[in-house]
């Protein structure tokens, strides 16, 4: 595989990439070494091992693949399309895997097969439960071991137990060997027992950074064959065969599944050279150096480049965090080491943390009260939930993010925190509704990161300090001041002036479904549930309205001024009589709300 063979991993209408943008550094030189060289100290014994692929759909730095290859002279790679993946979520019966993630998975399998074939193997694709398929293969091929990567959450652990039991039932001594391989730091290298994981991320990070080192990625031989003779390797199924309705990505980013695209994205983000053609000469290349500015841009929401977008490939194991770590190190050696290069590792460490936390917390990660068993009042109001899910809350920032999620399967980290806070604190809904909807839609869905982040966002996580309110006015002001993001996703807002896009009002957009708890007087809310306190969370802004004295002159302008403002707001509309009166009333109301927004008192968290 060479860098130039990568397909464009991620496309966005704002800008499209192609393989010319990628570095010329051959990937093969980074990860592979010849089998002859490796065979020097490895004794491969006769026999067959099965390699059971799970969320590790890669060849590079794959310890299970390497161990399977080392332990016998024939390897049979298998992927089981487990029907349980396509059932429904646990509490609210949403589809367990949405169409976009389903399609991403199929692309991962096609790419994995291609990459395995390049090294003399293939991928056996079977539909069915691993506990049925693997023992039968073990018997047919006389396999002595099934190698796989270890998972940490209950559904996956349950399958591991069933496979183990079923293999024992075959009676030919086949063992299940589970390998740790999903984190940047190896679990066995932690300076504490994982059950004693600190409750506070910073303590974890400091301890790990001071006391552990990240292992080198595993070098995989160029040739891994032979593989046993198999009659039918099985096709990568179509979405309809999986019972999913195919969905086109019509707007925003389209992620391409698979290791090739994942590695391509790493090269693109770290090393890409953009091509420009000055007026009078041939093409020039320059480094856009996205990694160098990651810390400053990572909180963005619009476009492909504000953050790495590695998460879908990490979630399916198409790329390993150790590979990213090594590329960061190379970048620091060859270009620059700064806060941004460190910060990618800082974020990857959050991913490690949530994975280790899932071992410590067990199933409490999925319970309403979370790891701390917090008691609270939560609603499961279907109508409110659907307005959130469908991007129809009347708050453009929420609606835009939810539309992006359902259209592309992705949402920025900033967006996720905002919509989570809104669902939990402003709507007072059971956080698991949001978490399960994310489980359906996210391309990068991973139980540890998803439920870990949701429990934090809902204030029921293991760290009691992580109980945060995200004020929509403040978030809009800080992260989308021109309203570009909301206008990209919510069509009606495009024709509005920038300053109106986050607060378009009922006439230009729609009613808000609930008032906000902090930071805004409730928009133009015709609320379904009034403004009573929700969700069992403290409401520390009582008395705020009496503190804010609003005078007519603050509104701006007197009647003449209002007419001028209205003329700019509704160009081309001839307003007479009642209609004019209503528009004036609407405008005044919005000015008042905007003033409340800017003069609101305390009770907010710094986000
Ligand atoms: C409510 C909520 C749910 C989430 N669900 C998931 C999920 O199911 N799967 C998932 O991978 N991430 C999840 N995240 C974390 C984070 O939002 C995504 O990892 C990130 O937005 C992915 O974009 P990126 O790859 O460009 O991230 P970058 O900012 O480029 O970060 C680099 C990598 O660091 C890791 N990372 C960054 N932030 C976090 C974080 N808060 N928690 C864990 N890992 C992190 C990811 O692997 C990411 O790819 C969730 C966050 C929230 C608030």
From TrEMBL:
Keywords: Chromophore, FAD, Flavoprotein, Membrane, Methyltransferase, S-adenosyl-L-methionine, Transferase, Transmembrane, Transmembrane helix, tRNA processing. Binds 1 FAD per subunit. Binds 1 5,10-methenyltetrahydrofolate (MTHF) per subunit. GO terms for molecular function: deoxyribodipyrimidine photo-lyase activity; DNA binding; FAD binding; tRNA (guanine(46)-N7)-methyltransferase activity. FAD binds at residues 294, 307-311, 347-354, 444-446. It catalyses: guanosine(46) in tRNA + S-adenosyl-L-methionine = N(7)-methylguanosine(46) in tRNA + S-adenosyl-L-homocysteine. The keyword Chloroplast does not apply. GO terms for biological process: photoreactive repair. The record marks 378, 431, 454 as: Electron transfer via tryptophanyl radical. The keyword Cytoplasm does not apply. The chain crosses the membrane at residues 551-574. Its cofactor is FAD; (6R)-5,10-methylene-5,6,7,8-tetrahydrofolate. Residues 47-184 form the Photolyase/cryptochrome alpha/beta domain. It holds the Pfam family FAD_binding_7. InterPro entries: Cry_DASH (IPR014133), Crypto/Photolyase_FAD-like_sf (IPR036134), Crypto/Photolyase_N_sf (IPR036155), Cryptochr/Photolyase_FAD-bd (IPR005101), Cryptochrome/DNA_photolyase_1 (IPR002081), DNA_photolyase_N (IPR006050), Rossmann-like_a/b/a_fold (IPR014729), SAM-dependent_MTases_sf (IPR029063). Residues 520-541 are annotated as: Disordered. Belongs to the DNA photolyase class-1 family. May have a photoreceptor function. This is Cryptochrome DASH. The gene is BnaA09g04780D.
């Amino acid at each position: 595989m060479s860098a130039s063979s990568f397909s464009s991993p991620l496309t966005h209408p704002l800008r499209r990439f192609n393989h010319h943008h990628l570095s010329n550094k051959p990937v093969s030189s980074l990860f592979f070494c010849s089998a002859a060289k490796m065979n020097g100290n490895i004794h491969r014994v006769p026999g067959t091992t099965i390699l059971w692929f799970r969320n590790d759909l890669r060849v590079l730095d794959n310890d299970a693949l390497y161990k399977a290859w080392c332990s016998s002279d024939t390897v049979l790679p298998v992927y089981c399309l487990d029907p349980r993946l396509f059932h429904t979520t646990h509490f609210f019966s949403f589809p367990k895997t949405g169409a976009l993630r389903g399609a991403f998975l199929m692309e991962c399998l096609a790419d994995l097969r291609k990459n395995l074939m390049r090294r003399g193997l293939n991928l056996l694709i079977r539909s069915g439960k691993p506990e049925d398929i693997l023992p039968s293969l073990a018997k047919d091929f006389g396999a002595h071991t099934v190698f796989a990567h270890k998972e940490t959450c209950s559904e996956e652990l349950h399958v591991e137990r069933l496979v183990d039991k079923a293999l024992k039932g075959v009676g030919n001594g086949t063992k299940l060997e589970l390998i740790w391989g999903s984190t940047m730091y190896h679990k066995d290298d932690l300076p504490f027992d994982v059950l004693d994981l600190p409750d506070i991320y910073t303590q974890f990070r400091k301890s790990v950074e001071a006391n552990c080192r990240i292992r080198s990625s595993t070098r995989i031989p160029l040739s891994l064959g032979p593989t046993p003779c198999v009659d039918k390797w099985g096709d990568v199924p179509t979405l309809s065969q999986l019972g999913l309705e195919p969905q086109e990505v019509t707007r925003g980013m389209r992620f391409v599944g698979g290791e090739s695209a994942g590695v391509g994205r790493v090269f693109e983000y770290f090393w890409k050279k953009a091509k420009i053609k000055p007026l009078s000469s041939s093409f020039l290349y320059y480094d856009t150096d996205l990694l160098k500015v990651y810390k400053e841009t990572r909180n963005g929401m619009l476009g492909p480049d504000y953050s790495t977008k590695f998460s879908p490939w990490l979630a399916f194991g198409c790329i390993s965090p150790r590979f990213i770590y090594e590329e960061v190190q190379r970048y620091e050696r060859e270009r620059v080491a700064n806060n941004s290069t460190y910060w990618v590792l800082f974020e990857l460490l959050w991913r490690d943390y949530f994975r280790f936390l899932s071992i410590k917390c067990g199933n409490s990660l999925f319970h309403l009260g979370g790891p701390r068993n917090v008691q609270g009042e939560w609603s499961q109001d279907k109508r409110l939930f659907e307005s959130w899910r469908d991007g129809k809350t009347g708050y453009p920032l929420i609606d835009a993010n939810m539309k992006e999620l359902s259209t592309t399967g992705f949402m920025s980290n900033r967006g996720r925190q905002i919509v989570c806070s809104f669902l939990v604190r402003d709507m007072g809904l059971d956080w698991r509704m949001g978490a399960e909807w994310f489980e359906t839609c996210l391309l990068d869905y991973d139980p540890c990161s998803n439920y870990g982040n949701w429990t934090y966002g809902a204030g029921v996580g293991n760290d009691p300090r992580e109980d945060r309110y995200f004020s929509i006015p403040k978030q809009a002001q800080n992260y989308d001041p021109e309203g570009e993001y909301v206008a990209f996703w919510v069509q009606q807002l495009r024709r509005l002036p920038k300053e109106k896009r986050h607060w378009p009002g009922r006439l230009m957009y729609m009613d808000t479904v609930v008032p906000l708890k902090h930071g805004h007087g409730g928009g133009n809310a015709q609320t379904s549930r009034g403004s009573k306190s929700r969700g069992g969370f403290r409401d520390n802004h009582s008395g705020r309205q009496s503190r804010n004295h609003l005078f007519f002159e603050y509104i701006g302008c007197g009647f003449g001024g209002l007419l001028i403002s209205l003329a700019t707001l509704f160009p081309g509309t001839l307003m007479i009589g009642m209609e004019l009166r209503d528009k004036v009333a609407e405008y005044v109301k919005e000015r008042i709300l905007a003033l409340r927004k800017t003069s609101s008192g305390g009770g907010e968290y710094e986000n």
